[in-house]
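Person: I keep going back and forth on a fold encoding question. Show me how you would write down a chain together with its backbone fold. Please set it down just below, with no commentary around it:
Helper:
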Amino acid sequence: MKTRIQLVFLVFVLLFSLVAAKAFYIQVVNKERLLAYSRSQFLRETREYPNRGNIYDRNGTSLAINVQIFNIFTFPRDKGPVFRKELATLAKIVPELPYNHLWTKVKNRRKYTWLARKVKRSEIQLEKIRKLESSHLEAHSDRVYPNHELSAQVLGFVGVDNGGLAGIERFQNKKLRGEAQIVRYMRDAKGRPVKYETDIAVATPSEDITLSIDKELQGTMEASLKEAVLYHKALRGGAGVMDAE
């Protein structure tokens, strides 16, 4: 019995030693090679924000809303006949992106490359693009101000990345934008890009904001102010609205 226990103990010690040696080889001896391989499999990391929150006046009228747009990109590593054929197909689906224009963008590239940004397409066209292995869609929201310049100084505006740059859009950017979801593109066993997303529950949703402004009063005031400034050839002007009662 004692001999049997000693034998089992030695077997476990040997197995543990093999595991420890393998771990040492991976983490120390072969570390740089494996890190380099890992980096070669990594293609792109990006942040996808939820739809930006809407801005309303006191009566619930929309002052700032979103429309869905798409960015199109590719990973032009293998630019063989199949890739060129799909590029020509994409040019037919999106006529404003002629083949020569697309080929000029990718012919000297091997990494992630934009093909088009802020593209608006029908669902049928989007479905055709999704079937192309070499072209990828990235959904975004584009900011729209349905009342044009009404209360523009108060509302402000957003940049290319949909982040607030002035006015309410900037000062309430955290609420309106929400928290991003991390999206990564990794290479699979056949070299094709595969999309990986973090758990959507991790992302913080955006929030809508309601202002105390009344759209109709604001519009009347701005029109009256503009008329007075032009009539008096003033450098600038200001106005306030109040309930006299």
Notes: The beta strands are 42-48, 55-56, 62-74, 113-119, 135-144, 157-158, 164-166, 181-187, 193-197, 209-210. The chain has a mean pLDDT of 81. DSSP finds nine helices and ten strands in the chain. The radius of gyration is 29 Å.
